[in-house]
């Protein structure tokens, strides 16, 4: 409309639209840079943030330098402005968690993301600081609703009630996790705090399996090979679940694959049961409930709904919540759909996690984002440095 104003015309109302605009795909990019090299833009991006892209050594480092002409420098810090206070940022890729923690405690890094709950104590003992991302995650055990016997909700309920989730969360998340009740975290609007977990009850689980004719069920439990913010130890959690299931007569063979293969195969529905999770993109219930459990996401390949859960009543409510900007109407839809989903039990929800971050003492002003998308403009290093 003018130099600083853009108008979007939508075909229909969209409840999460403003929050969608805050996601990284909507980052403002340089039209000139795109026109000059549209195919190579992703390797040499030009944006509008507090730092400029310098270089990318794939699999190793990304180098940034401060943008002294950043438009947000004079904005108040309460609105995300100010700075940038440091001249350079180097982002290092260190896939191995032990090596990453060693680099942090050895002083090679100013800060480290991707820490596990077990890393908190040694990092603090080394005299460093720990902070936590606000919980915008959900970890879960998805049961493939299109594969027998998990097409039977009683069998899914039996799996749910057989697992001692309090013990699992205490053992593998410690104070970084909270046992999940519904299918999105409590930081998201319209979280239904009236929903309670089905109780841990092996006797009830055995009876449900008997009634379904599945007393000696043999199946597979897939687990991810790497730690994730919502799943710090996939193998350990799978082993604990395997033992709980054994106690009710279910033999669950543990299966894993290289991470890329794991993603591809679960997104194609090859699994009977699989550990997975999600870190929210924008803090809207649509980004959890619709993305992860709507029928449209249960595709033959590249599925995000890896439970392959399909419920027309739930879909209708999800559409209602997505296609209105009336907050009361959205609340009514999402509160109800959570009740339906929990009753249908496509998942065994595990935990809402607060992923830990480690910092040197001289790092100040780091604002941990629930989504992991920090701008670094507010960060300072006491004593100077990059």
What class, by secondary structure content?
alpha+beta
Proportion of residues in helical segments? 25-40%
CATH class of the largest domain: Alpha Beta
Q: What do we call the CATH homologous superfamily of the largest domain? A: Dipeptide-binding Protein, Domain 3
Mean pLDDT: 95
- Outline the low-pLDDT stretches: none
Overall geometry: globular
CATH architecture classification of the largest domain:
Roll
How far apart are the termini? 39 Å
Taking the sheet with the most strands, its summary is: 6 strands, mixed
Order of helices and strands: HHEEEHEHEEHHEHEHEHEHHHEEEE
* Annotated CATH topology of the largest domain: Dipeptide-binding Protein, domain 3
* The number of domains: 2
The strand line-up of the biggest sheet is 7-11-6-10-8-9
How many helical stretches?
12
Rounded to an integer in angstroms, the radius of gyration calculated over CA atoms is 23 Å
């Amino acid at each position: 409309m003018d130099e600083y104003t853009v108008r979007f015309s939508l075909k229909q109302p969209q409840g999460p639209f403003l929050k969608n605009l805050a996601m990284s795909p909507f980052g403002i990019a340089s039209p000139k840079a795109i026109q000059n090299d549209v195919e190579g833009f992703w390797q040499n991006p030009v944006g509008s943030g507090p730092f400029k892209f310098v270089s990318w050594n794939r699999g190793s480092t990304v180098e940034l330098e401060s943008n002294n002409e950043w438009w947000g420098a004079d904005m108040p810090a309460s609105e995300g402005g100010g700075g940038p206070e440091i001249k350079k940022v180097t982002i290092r890729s260190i896939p191995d968690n032990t090596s990453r923690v060693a680099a942090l405690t050895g002083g090679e890094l100013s800060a480290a993301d991707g820490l596990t709950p077990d890393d908190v104590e040694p990092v603090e003992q080394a005299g460093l600081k720990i902070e936590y991302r606000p919980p915008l995650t959900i970890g879960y055990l998805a049961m493939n609703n299109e594969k027998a016997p998990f097409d039977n909700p009683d069998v899914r309920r039996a799996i749910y009630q057989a697992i001692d989730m309090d013990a699992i969360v205490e053992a593998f998340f410690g104070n970084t996790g909270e046992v999940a009740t519904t299918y999105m975290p409590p930081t998201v609007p319209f979280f239904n705090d009236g929903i309670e977990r089905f109780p841990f009850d092996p006797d009830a689980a055995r009876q449900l399996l008997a009634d379904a004719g599945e007393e000696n069920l043999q199946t597979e439990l897939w687990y991810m090979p790497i730690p994730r913010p919502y799943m710090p130890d996939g193998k350990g959690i799978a082993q604990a679940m395997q033992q709980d299931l054994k106690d009710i007569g279910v033999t669950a063979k543990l299966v894993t694959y290289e991470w890329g293969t794991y993603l591809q195969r679960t997104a194609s529905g090859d699994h009977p049961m699989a550990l997975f999770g999600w870190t929210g993109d924008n803090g809207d219930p649509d980004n959890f409930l619709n993305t992860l459990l709507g029928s449209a996401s249960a595709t033959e390949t590249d599925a995000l709904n890896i439970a392959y859960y399909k419920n027309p009543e739930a879909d209708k409510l999800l559409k209602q919540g997505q296609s209105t900007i009336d907050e009361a109407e959205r609340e009514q839809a999402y509160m109800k759909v959570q009740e339906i989903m929990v009753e249908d039990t496509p998942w065994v929800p595990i935990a809402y996690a607060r992923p830990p971050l480690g910092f040197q003492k001289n790092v100040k002003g780091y604002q941990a984002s629930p989504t992991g998308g920090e701008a670094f403009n507010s960060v300072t290093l006491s004593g100077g440095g990059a």
